[in-house]
Amino acid sequence: MPADGPPAGPGRGPPRIAIVGAGAVGAWVGGCMALAGHDVTLIDPWPAHVAAMNRDGLRLTDADGERRARVLALDICNVQSLNRRPVDIAFICMKLPDTAWATELIRPCLADRGFVVTMQNGLVEETVAGIVGWSRTLGAIASTISVELVGPGHVERTQRAGGDAYTVFRVGELHGGITARAEAVAAMLRSCDSARVTGNLHGERWAKLVANTMSTAVCGISGLSLSEIVEHPGARALQIRLAGEAIRVGRALGYHLEPVRGLAADTWAAAAEGDARALEQCEAALRAGNARRTGAGGRSGTAQDLAKGRWPEVEHMNGCVARLGREAGLPATTHERVTALVIDAARGDLVPGIDALDRLVLELGVLPASR
């Protein structure tokens, strides 16, 4: 389909939307869209979750209370039923290792002018485009949304809404143009939180990767919440070092990085090199993020995966930075090490906790950013 085509064909009515992967992010986005009146089908491989959504609706809880969305949910074995009502827009919200098969799953169900929107961490657009085509692929980034699937049919958000203060969703074409369909997708996402179209999807994508790799593995290794890793001096310093390495690799690969957690990439890079003023700014940014969290502070995706016995995404996140760094001749040794430790934890060879974090900080020579 043309890159600037509308989300649905003439006379088709409202676009038919599928969320492939109704985990934390997918369920939250799909539920909010359903509450706003969009035609949404949620697809997931967890039978109990699918059954709960169909039976009781989808519970969405946050600092403002609880809402319940009536949704249509499908088990992955029943996706072929969508061929009777082809999908105009398919959001891929699966874990990173599942990107290829999830895209293949929905591809036969796309309408003639249908397209896929990646709403995941990491660098996934090339994988999706290789399956459905470059012109049928858009990218979408959910930044600091902080959601968790706490049980079948129940997703909780531990981050306050961004609203006018912070743009949560960024939608972009792979070629960098501003198109009607990207604007339409951003408008849909505003039913969930603030959203805009970006002309720098790849720079946004790498900036999100920097933000993810700062915290997700650190939470997994330490057993601390997202809020607690900011208040722990060693974990805070480790986050800043991880940011500096990831930014250096991204720049070497030619990305024009967007701000990371509200600060220019230059500031994080300088903080990682020990610049006192930059350290102060980065610590302030981290603590400002804590002020927007609710309850116990939330768990990173890696921490959630380890707690639930699922294989984590770390090889596609910190491991990706490490691999691309090696290829660029810029070893990202901190990313290498945290990747290895998360894999150890997933295999049962490491017990996450403060002791594991303190050993890592000592091993890497990470000094607290401030005392």
Class based on secondary structure composition and strand pairing: alpha/beta
Cα Rg: 20 Å
Q: Summarize the amount of helix as a percent range.
A: 40-55%
CATH domain topology of the largest domain: Rossmann fold
Number of helices: 14
Strand content: 15-25%
Helix-strand topology string: EHEHEEEEHEHEEEEHEHHHHHHHHH
Structure commentary:
With 371 residues, the protein is an alpha/beta fold. The chain has two domains: 16-199, NAD(P)-binding Rossmann-like Domain (Rossmann fold); 204-364, N-(1-d-carboxylethyl)-l-norvaline Dehydrogenase, domain 2 (Orthogonal Bundle). 43% of the residues lie in helices and 17% in strands. The protein has 14 helices and twelve strands. The chain has an eight-stranded mixed β-sheet with strand order 5-2-1-6-7-8-11-12, sandwiched between helices. A four-stranded mixed β-sheet has the order 4-3-10-9. Strand 7, helix 4 (125-132) and strand 8 form a beta-alpha-beta unit. Helix 6 packs antiparallel against helix 8 and helix 6 crosses helix 13. The radius of gyration is 20 Å and the shape is globular. The mean pLDDT is 92.
Fold topology:
Layout: E1 16-20, H1 24-35, E2 39-44, H2 47-56, E3 58-62, E4 65-69, E5 72-75, E6 87-92, H3 99-106, E7 110-118, H4 125-132, E8 137-142, E9 147-151, E10 154-157, E11 169-173, H5 180-189, E12 195-197, H6 201-222, H7 228-231, H8 233-252, H9 265-272, H10 276-291, H11 301-307, H12 318-327, H13 333-347, H14 354-364
Parallel strand pairs: 1-2, 1-6, 2-5, 3-10, 6-7, 7-8, 11-12
Antiparallel strand pairs: 3-4, 8-11, 9-10
